[in-house]
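Input.
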Amino acid sequence: MLKDREELKDFYERLDGKYEGYIQLSGGRLRHVYFDPTSLPEWSRLVAGGNFILEMALYAPDTRVSILVKQYNDRWHVTERTIEESATFERYIIYPNRHYTMRVAQVWEPRKSTFCLDMEVLEPVQLLFAGFESGGHDDHRTV
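Output.
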């Protein structure tokens, strides 16, 4: 769903709870990274100095809700979805912090396929940010 600046502000201010993730602002380097569930900064502090959100990926472990916000011109595309218990996950090593991996949930849905005589097959439809994990890095992809 596309939101204007005021709608995005309202959406952000309604977020409660603790989140893992990151918020990339327009004013420079990535400074808002939350490897452990954390309360989000106040909107006014976040956008001080005329900054705006370029991209935001958040995950609430308690509710399994994934949020992705991407800026497009003067609007923001907001995706909010609960990750199913049965979801499959990919893990990616992130630089420069190699002590954590980023988890991404794969969402698959049944769709009719002309390649399978119009029978339903599972197809990937979305990737969702699912937080960070600390620990070993065996068999992980590199970002």
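Helices lie at 5-14, 43-46.
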